[in-house]
Automatic annotation (TrEMBL):
InterPro entries, per database record: Lysozyme-like_dom_sf, Transglycosylase_SLT_dom_1
Organism listed in the record: Dactylosporangium roseum
Protein name: Transglycosylase SLT domain-containing protein
Domain spans labelled Transglycosylase SLT: 290-435
Pfam families tied to this protein: SLT
Domain of life: Bacteria
Length: 452
């Protein structure tokens, strides 16, 4: 229960609700098409029958998804209630642990290793001659704390019991409702290979589907990423998701303000820091549309993604990343795992990118690693991967279900720290990175939203 995130469950329920609204938006057109088309031919009756079946199919799909949406949302509310009870239980449990700690630490290893509730159950009553001998010297302390300890014990036990009952009862209802919702879905079969081939071969279909997501929030919500390729297998041993990102970014236009080389890095670091700042801001200004579009697709604020670009653009030139990688892979002098090497515009480590792209970072093949680095070296793919890393980080926080437009700057700052530090985001180096992100906020927003 500690790891349960009701917000993510709520997000699933809202996604089912979006499908309901999408079907409802299509139903009038479907009904009109059946009644308005006057087809005089031998196949007219078959046409009307098929259109009627399609309309019936849409109605049944709507009812099934509506029932599923309600079931998931109700279960999410129950989980939120259970989490509140869990917090009450944990607070009482921690208080009991602190209260009885001194006496509990004098007991047997079995008692010392137990949870506070079990420890107090053992301490508050003598269950054997051995217990009497061990606890006799501490009976006065036990008796003095008995009233307070009992109060904490029953408060924690009661809260945990309510957690169990709330979750179990809600789960039973949820499973039954989801089963009922599933039964409402029509039992039909379609040739998925035919659909796949149509989508794959028809020029511009994927681009139009992405555009539809930008125009109609019901057809594709922010944060869902780019439209996948519907089962078209990736070549070699790349993940399908990696190939999806490569395909989607292929149509992007990236405007690089200038090449950033060794001389630029030295000049910006040791002679004129404003030289590097101009490069960073020029990168953002030249790619406003791209940054805003990618951020929308992954459900993160555009200023967050732009702020990360500002942090990472410039700095070490790409040739030094590849040099460091070669040293770490081929000599004992690197001092770090080669997959900790950062590449590209967005300064993403190989292992971080591997996770975002759906690989197992502990078992990367040489070809997979090469493809990851190739994508990180390509600025537009690197920006998409960075957006995915930020979106994944967002999903682990309390703002997982927050509209990007409603995210506070403190929440953005936390995601910047997580981008830099991963699980160590609370450490000084990641917090310093987040401070730099915060300090650049005004400059970044001025160029990100500046008119052309």
């Amino acid at each position: 229960m500690h790891d349960v995130e009701p917000g993510l469950m709520r997000l699933n329920g809202e996604e089912f609700g979006r499908v309901v609204r999408l079907i409802e938006s299509a139903l009038p057109t479907l009904t009109e098409a059946r009644s308005a088309v006057q087809w005089q031919a031998d196949a007219a009756d078959l046409y009307r029958a098929r259109m009627g079946e399609a309309e019936s199919l849409a109605h049944e799909l709507r009812e099934g998804f509506l029932r599923a949406s309600n079931a998931v949302l109700q279960y999410a509310e129950a989980l939120a209630e259970a989490k509140t009870e869990m917090e009450i239980g944990d607070a009482a449990n921690d208080g009991l642990r602190e209260l009885i700690k001194e006496v509990a630490n004098t007991q047997s290893k079995r008692v010392r290793d137990s949870e506070p509730l079990s420890q107090w159950e053992d301490l508050r009553k003598i269950t054997s001659l051995f217990d009497r001998q061990v606890e006799e010297d501490y009976q006065d302390k036990i008796n003095k704390m008995r009233v307070q300890a009992d109060s904490l014990y029953y408060e924690a036990a009661g809260a945990y019991s309510r957690v169990r009952d709330i979750e179990q009862n809600a789960r039973q209802i949820f499973v039954a409702e989801m089963h009922s919702a599933f039964k409402r879905l029509p039992d039909f079969k379609a040739d998925s290979n035919a659909a796949k081939n149509i989508i794959k071969r028809a020029p511009g279909v994927l681009a139009e589907m992405n555009d539809a997501g930008l125009q109609n929030p019901e057809s594709r919500l922010p944060g869902q990423g780019f439209v996948p390729r519907f089962g078209v297998d990736a070549p070699g041993d790349m993940t399908d998701f990696h190939q999806d990102i490569r395909d989607a970014s292929g149509s992007f236009v990236v405007n690089e303000p200038a090449e950033w080389g060794v001389a630029d890095a030295v000049h910006g670091k040791y002679i004129d820091p404003a030289h590097e700042q101009k490069y960073k801001l020029a990168w953002i200004r030249a790619n406003q549309e791209l940054i805003q579009g990618v951020a929308y697709q992954y459900g993160i604020p555009a200023e967050l993604l732009a702020g990360i670009i500002y942090q990472e653009a410039g700095g070490k030139p790409p040739v030094l990343d590849h040099t460091a990688d070669w040293v770490r892979r081929n000599t004992p002098l690197g001092g770090k795992d080669a997959d900790d090497t950062s590449f590209g515009l967005m300064g993403i480590q190989v292992d971080t990118a591997a996770v975002a792209l759906g690989y197992d970072p502990a078992h990367l093949t040489d070809s997979q690693r090469a493809e990851i680095i190739k994508s990180l070296d390509e600025p537009k793919e690197s920006i998409v991967i960075a957006a995915k890393v930020l979106a994944d980080a967002k999903d682990t926080t309390d703002c997982a279900n927050t509209d990007p437009k409603q995210m506070t700057f403190d929440q953005q700052r936390e995601l910047a720290a997580r981008y830099n530090g991963g699980p160590d985001w609370n450490k000084e180096i990641a917090q310093s990175y987040a401070d730099d992100f915060a300090n650049s906020r005004t400059d970044v927003n001025l160029v990100l939203y500046a008119p052309d």
